[in-house]
Sequence to fold (607 residues):
Amino acid sequence: MTWQSFRERANVWLYNSKESVLGTFQWLNLLVNVMALVVLALYYGYAHEPDTSTLLFQLVKASFGFYVFHYGLRVLYHFHPRQFLRETWPEGLVMALLLVEGAGDVFWGTPFLGEALNRLVPSITDFSTVLIQGYLLAVIISESLRPGSRLPKVRLHPAVVFILSFLLLIGVGTWLLNMPEMTTVEGHMPWVDAFFTATSATCVTGLMSVDTMTYFTAKGHWVLLLLIQLGGLNFIAFGSFLALVSKFGVAVKQHDVIEDFVNSESLLGSSGSLGKVVLWCLGLEALGALALMMLWSPDVPFDSWGERLFSSVFHSVSAFNNAGITLFTDGLAHPWVATNWLVHWVITVLVFLGALGMVAMFDLFDLAKLRERMAQPWKTISFPTKIALYFSTGLVALGAVAFGVLEWSGTMQGMSWFGKFTTAVFQSVTRTSGFNTVDIGSVGMPMLFLLMVLMFIGASSSSTGGGIKTSTLAIVLADVWRTVRGADHVQIFQRTVHAVLRSRAYSVLLFFLAGNMVGIFLLTVTESHLVLHEGVAFFDLAFEHVSAMGTVGLSTGLTAQLSSAGKLILATAMFVGRVGTLTVAFAVGGRTLQSHFKYPDGHTMVG
Fold:
């Protein structure tokens, strides 16, 4: 009997049970995913007796066995196993590694690969545990995103799904940071501070109510790193959200929310765009981490090679995602790194690229695009890329010149010429990230006001930064210029801007203005004791809130002094600034009612 005839008979025999068996295992897979993540969190988040630790880790290993068995069932029930293996080879590779590690653990008492890596890198404690955790996360992600996975059949607006994904991440982050093993303090982190920190990391803002360097343990730093990475790559969340949308049956016309978010006309039709985004982001972060590894000065007292590596990865991820969170007290103004200009330039480049946006980077640096422009010189970069690149560069130049002029004899006094130039460019670029190489509380009022304006504008569309975005600024300025000149159309870079885009730009601007006004007013109510008795100025409250809603993270030193109510107000501002005011408006606005009648034109004086 040939293999083909054997498979045909097997398929006929298995056909009747295929749907029920695979359907049942899909639901079991969802439950095992949740169980494994909860067990893993409990394993790392609390101190346990040896027997309890062993039991918890055995449960994690049992989940590995379930994943391997489930994958084997899918191979068995597929009509063409070889084709299935070719199509799912990344998942199959992870399953093969799990199988090898499981065999080593069962028969020889130790996983092969984990033991080998422990021998190669003895400075990393219990590397096999970290390796298994990586296996688990890879498997859960692959299992959750594959087309056949079980998800609740609930019809929700796309913007609601997107917002709920951030809320879920913030909730999980709050729970993790509240665990005793995450902090160095007795007991656990207060819930308000845990929620504030999780929101700040997830929304890549960087405002911190505690000292990141001394308050958190190594495990806490890992949680912050994961929150920054997952929250910062909001376009990856939108990629997963697109898959959810297809399952929920949302209308195609509602995908405008997604296109607005990434400012790309070809997102929905691009092939493999999500994987491309992930590879580019991880690649740039890896290059940044490698550069930082080589450039840390001897003044930084790393205890081991592993600690140096983690610090490099953490700061690279934080910089590219415009989070602004560092592992140094007082940020990059800490004496260990305050004059390490090369490290400052690596951070500057990463922040600028992260704020530029993936769509613009693809257009500027993708090899296919570069070859196309070389072969056809009349082709130029796209309209969205021009806005992102030219306006971002212009804002950086404006901020750098202003910082150099206004702070030359202030916070930059005593620096070399190259140091002053580096600091001026750094603080201008990091208007979207919140990194600081000088004490922001010591910066003069004129520069603080300009920084507040730059934070309000923010980064570009499809980027990890916040603010109203450079595209909104460009459209509003072009419309104002059109009005002043009395022209018929709004034009930017020899392109006419449609009325719908102008309406959305003004909507974003209005929501940001209203959001900041309401938030600042609430801060004057909840933090009145600071203004009356602690010498805090109204401007400090305004600066703090604009920084939060712009997801920047610059602070004059007020964050740690805020009351619980003040922290909740800033956390709300960070969340709204991260998911986008227009997305929030779409989420709460409900379904648009289309009407085919029109009222008579009205006219009134303006101005």
Observations:
- The radius of gyration is 26 Å.
- Residues 354-589 form one domain.
- Confidence is low (pLDDT under 50) at residues 121-127, 239-272.
- The chain is about 65% helix and 0% strand.
